[in-house]
Amino acid sequence: MVQPQPRPASRPEAAAPPPDPPADRRRAWLITALIVGFMLVNYADKSVLGLAAVPIMDELHISNSTYGLISSSFALLFSVSGLMGGIVSARVPSRVLLAVLAAVWAVAQLPVLFVASVPALVAGRVLLGVAEGPAAPMSMHALYKWFPEDRRGLPSALQISGAALGTLIAAPGVTWLITAFGWRSAFAALAAVSVVWSLLWWRTGHDGPYGHESVHGAGSGSTSGSGADSGSVHRSGSGSGPGPGRGSGPVVRLPFRRLLLNGTVLGSIAGAFGASWALSLSQAWLPAYLRTQLGMSSGGAATLISGVSAFSFVLLLAVSPLVDALNRRGVTNRWSRGAPQGIAVTVAALAMAALPFADVRGVLLALITLAFGAHAITFPLHYMTTAAVVPPAQRGAVFGFVAATGTLPGLIAPSLTGHLLDSAPSQTAGYTHAFLVSAAVMLVCGLTALAAIRPERDVQRLRPAGRAGRGQQCAAPIDG
Predict the structure, then answer these.
(1) Domain ranges of the chain
(2) Secondary structure of the chain in the HEC alphabet?
(3) What's CA 100's distance to the chain center, in Å?
(4) 143-183: per-residue pLDDT in tens?
């Protein structure tokens, strides 16, 4: 009797994916903690100018328009550097890339310590923008190297929560430094913190086992790079094959034009654009608005800004794990990850539009919280929806492009707001115009994201020719 031959062990599709080694899980969460710290410092660096806006404007005798231009100068090269960072990430390890970025942040804080002037502020903000442009997408890319797709929800939320924590901690801390020691002390303190983080990351940060997923056709979940999908080659690519992160299938690369012009990526960019508009307006002008229009003290304004950040933090921790749970129950990416982005930005837009007409103090504070906090969940989700349709080998570059275009509001919103304030008959009218313009932009972006993000549809459209038949049975698992 002929005994059946066992299937060769070398075929990754024959074996169930083994669990991550305990040491890898511990290292993954250590990397997550460091990246949360990275984003915390990142957003503290961004926020310091806004928190110091009133004393800087008073000391240097600058107008709203000039301050708006200084704030917008941060974004002058931000998008370009974000795009370049995505390209470089394919060739430079995350350990080197993130350590260098944080070191440059420290250098960017130094000009105003020597010469307190508009040119020094502009120079520092431009350099900071260059070094922070790649920060969010590249740190997310580094984080994804340590988790399979169906386990990225909580780490992604924690990474983005570094932004909320940055403001939550920075607002009272930096405000205290400004009040007690002058606004220059805040710049000096953030420079020191950036250096410390850079040294810690250089010692600890390494690429994880999911950094080199391979993809065997878009139909097998190819464009998502998931380690948890049921497609056999998909598993191989996510580290369940003969070695961590070293898939045995061929790597699929699609034309960037097709990747960037599909509805899911465009919708993700729109969502990020609307959320970034609210974020840049918050960082540049919300502290000044609270002090000049609502009559708050510097401490009171810092407390409210921290409250908005706390609201964002709670949303981030609540929504992203829920997204993962919905995916595991079979809910599609369109409804579990795409729709929440559009809804969040739309809600923030409606709150922004209502701000100028609120007379009751409690209602006004609630609208401020929604307008400047509800959009936060868009940031982790827009990376997740983009990753669902992009081959892992091209993920870093596409992340860079999405970040570069989605964060363009940083170049527009602060300067436009300063111009509106100076051209209006009063500051109150100027803020009204600014909030209504912002609401219109955000509403268009939110509705676009809601309509355009359809990962399941776009994976089918992006599937390489000739693979439709082979991959048909594995198309659904891209939902994670």
Answers:
(1) 22-207+214-479
(2) CCCCCCCCCCCHHHCCCCCCCHHHHHHHHHHHHHHHHHHHHHHHHHHHHHHCHHHHHHHHCCCHHHHHHHHHHCCCCHHHHHHHHHHHCCCCCHHHHHHHHHHHHHHHCCHHHHCCCHHHHHHHHHHHHHHHCCHHHHHHHHHHCCCCHHHCHHHHHHHHHHHHHHHHHHHHHHHHHHHHHCHHHHHHHHHHHHHHHHHHHHHHCCCCCCCCCCCCCHHHCCCCCCCCCCCHHHHHHHHHCCCCCCCCCCCCCCCHHHHHCCHHHHHHHHHHHHHHHHHHHHHHHHHHHHHHCCCCCHHHHHHHHHHHHHHHHHHHHHHHHHHHHHHHCCCCHHHHHHHHHHHHHHHHHHHHHHHHHCCCHHHHHHHHHHHHHHHHHHHHHHHHHHHCCCCHHHHHHHHHHHHHHHCCHHHHHHHHHHHHHHHCCCHHHHHHHHHHHHHHHHHHHHHHHHHHCCHHHHHHHHCCCCCHHHHHHHCHHHHC
(3) 19
(4) 888 887 667 777 877 787 777 777 777 778 888 999 899 99
What would the pLDDT profile of 337-347 be if each residue is shown by its tens digit? 889 999 999 99
Both structure tokens of 51: 């928190």
Name the token pair of 147.
Answer: 């988790």
pLDDT at 14 over 80: no
Alpha-carbon distance of 443 to 137, in angstroms, equals: 24
Over residues 346-377, the pLDDT tens digits come to 999 999 999 999 989 899 999 999 999 999 88
- Integer Cα distance of 368 and 311 in angstroms: 11
241-248: long-range pairs with CB below 8 Å, 24+:
241/12, 242/10, 242/12, 244/24, 244/209, 244/210, 245/145, 245/208, 245/209, 245/210, 245/211, 245/212, 245/213, 246/212, 246/214, 247/12, 247/212, 247/213, 247/214, 247/215, 247/216, 248/10, 248/12, 248/214
Closest by alpha carbon to 415, among 21, 74, 43, 77?
Answer: 74
CATH class of 22-207+214-479: mainly alpha
Mean pLDDT, range 398-426, rounded to an integer: 86
Determine contact, residues 380/316, Cβ cutoff 8 Å.
yes
Q: If you average pLDDT over residues 112-129, what whole number do you get?
A: 91
Structure tokens at 425: 């008959």
